[in-house]
Every structure is written in C-alpha cells, then in structure tokens.
Write a sequence for this structure.
C-alpha cells in the first residue's frame, strides 16, 4: 500500500488505512497515556517495533476536517480453531485524542444495547462497518464470507472502551490477569541458558503441545533476537521463557500511597539504581513453559533472567483460566513491586463473524493465549 486509502467518509469525518505506521500515528501513540485514572498509567517509549508485529498490519486514521483525532491498529493472522480455518484480527492501540462523549459511569450489558444501532455515537457508526467486515482492510482479497474473529484485551476499569466494544458486537470470552514479577536483588543461576538456535524447532513443538488447549496461540515472535531462555533437568528442558525488553514512561503508579512510597524509596541510592519514578525498564515474559512438578525451576528461571539482563521487574499476562495462571496463583512470591502495583484485570473481548456456533463455544470453553509482545 503506497499511500493511505480512504475506507469511509461521513460528513467531515474520514477513516483512512495504511499498512505501515507513519510519523503521525507513531507520535500519537507515544503521546497516548495507557491505563485509567486511579490505576497504573504509563506511556510507551519503545513502540515502533511492536507496531510491526508479524502478520498483516493495518493502521487506521480517524480524521475530522483533515486533522487526525484518533488512530488504531489491526493485526491480522490466519488461525485454526477446532478444525475451522479463519482470520483473526487483534485490535491494538485504539486511541482518541479527545473525548467524543462524557465518561460513562456504568458498564453496559446486552440488555442496554438492544437499540444501540439507533442511537450509537458518530464514532460507532464510523467504525462499525470495519468491525463487521474486517476483510475490507485488505486492498485486494476481500472475502466477506470468510469466518473470522475480531478481538481485543480491554481493561475492566475502562468503561468507555468496554461499552464501545459492546456497541461493536464484541463479547467477553474470558478474563486476563496482568501482573509484575520483581526481585530487587535477583539471584543469578548457572542453570539458566539461552536456548541454542538449533533447538528452537524442538522447543516450539513442546510449546505447541503445552498450549494445545489454548486458542489463538501464535508462535511468532517467539525466539525473537534469540532471547528464549531455559533450565534443564537431566538434559531435558523443564522451564522456558521468551523475554522482550520494554521501557515505559510513568505517569501514575495508581494511587497516592503507591506514588508517595515510590518517591520515598527512590531517594535511597541503592533503590534508585533499580527503579525510578519517571521510567520503568522491564522485561515482558512470553511463551512460558513449565513441565509439571518443576514450578520452582520456573521461578529460578525468571529470577535468573532478571539477573542476566540487569533488570529488576518483569510483567506476565495470562488468561485466568489457564494452568499457567494457577502456577502463579498457588506459588505467589511475585515480589514487593507486585504488592504495590497489584494485578491488572482485563476482559478478552471477541466478535465472531461467519463463525460456526460450535467454534464459538470452543472459544468460550478454552483459555486464550495472551502474547505480551502484542500487549506491552
């Protein structure tokens, strides 16, 4: 796509789409504050790499009289669920520069949305056709009958996005927990090793089996930069993890108490070398593997990787119905920063398009794989 393509026009509003992120959208995303008032809030500083995740990438520009007032991204990947081949479209970084309506005070349920099409917002009328037929994002292949899903991870406190997604026909199929793992003095482990490239195919087979009961398990960008680390027992991999380096500019740690405590702690030189109130340098953990009975090895691996990379904080994102979540819920010991930052709860929201009812039910009955690469 050489230049932006106009998808829709409504009075002085237009929606344009392009396949590579321009400076305008990059600047907009970097200036967007993630999180809700009263919770942890931050800005991305290492976003460009994430914007070009593997798969089809499309970037929407919402313009009013030619001026951009909003933007968003869709990442499309082929998928197969319960034997049905379909498209999957992840909504990423949807953002409006200024509120187009007042902040809602309650979450809308299906009963509240019966007449929503008659009274939907301008933004809703604008985006609805794209959500209903995402294949039009493609300039060439536009098979309207192809089964597909559109999905998004939406913070439960974000009522505006939650209600807007309901207008667009998305429903909740699961819940995600995002939480930190920290060690201010991480211990090195001689058993932690970077997985050799010639063993990545075998590790990939292990991961596919491990997540065989999860939906939307995409293997890219696992092994990115050869940053997959493992611990072995008797020569066999029993714990594995992919890491991505992430930097966030901090706007708010989520409460007056947390903000005050961080300011006090970071006056101590030993602490400030590790954590600053202005910026967080952390790891995103992905592709987590833990053989049954080796949960302590997984914790040793996570701490050892922190020590190896000179980081003190990492994040984990996982479906709360996944066995991986049970490991952390049972073992706990997530570090002092987890006690301060708490757990980020979000809904996994999906719209099914031309999807058989049996496949829809399969999504409801199985955990969803949550890649931190696409959501950090």
């Amino acid at each position: 796509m050489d230049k932006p393509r106009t998808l829709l026009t409504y009075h002085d509003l237009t929606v344009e789409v392009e396949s590579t992120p321009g400076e305008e959208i990059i600047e907009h995303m970097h200036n967007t504050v993630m999180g809700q008032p009263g919770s942890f809030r931050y800005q991305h500083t290492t976003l460009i790499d994430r914007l070009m995740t593997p798969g089809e990438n499309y970037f929407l520009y919402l313009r009013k009289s030619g001026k951009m007032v909003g933007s968003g991204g869709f990442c499309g990947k082929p998928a197969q669920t319960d034997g049905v081949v379909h498209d999957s479209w992840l909504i990423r970084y949807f953002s409006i520069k200024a509120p187009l309506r007042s902040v809602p005070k309650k979450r809308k349920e299906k009963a509240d949305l019966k007449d929503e099409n008659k009274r939907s917002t301008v933004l809703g009328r604008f985006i609805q056709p794209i959500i209903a037929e995402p294949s039009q994002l493609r300039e060439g292949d536009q098979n309207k009958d192809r089964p597909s899903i559109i999905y998004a991870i939406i913070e439960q406190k974000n009522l505006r996005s939650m209600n807007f997604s309901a207008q667009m026909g998305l429903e909740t199929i699961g819940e995600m927990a995002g939480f930190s793992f920290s060690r201010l003095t991480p211990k090195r482990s001689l058993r932690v090793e970077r997985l050799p490239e010639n063993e990545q195919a075998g590790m990939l087979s292990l991961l596919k089996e491990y997540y065989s009961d999860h939906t939307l398990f995409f293997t890219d960008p696992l092994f990115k930069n050869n940053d997959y680390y493992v611990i072995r027992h008797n020569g066999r991999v029993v714990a594995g993890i992919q890491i991505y380096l992430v930097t966030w500019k901090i706007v708010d740690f989520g409460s007056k108490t947390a903000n005050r405590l961080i300011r006090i702690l970071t006056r101590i030189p030993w602490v400030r070398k590790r954590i600053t109130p202005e910026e967080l340098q952390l790891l995103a953990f992905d592709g987590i593997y833990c053989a049954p009975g080796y949960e302590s090895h997984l914790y040793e691996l996570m701490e050892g990787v922190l020590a190896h990379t000179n980081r003190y904080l990492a994040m984990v994102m996982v479906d709360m119905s996944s066995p991986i979540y049970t490991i952390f819920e049972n073992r706990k010991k997530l570090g002092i920063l987890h006690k301060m930052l708490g757990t980020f709860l979000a809904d996994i929201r999906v719209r099914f398009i031309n999807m058989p009812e049996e496949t829809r039910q399969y999504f409801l009955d199985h955990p969803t794989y949550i890649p931190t690469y696409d959501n950090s």
User: Anything to note?
Assistant: The first strand starts at residue 5 and ends at 10. Confidence is low (pLDDT under 50) at residues 113-119.
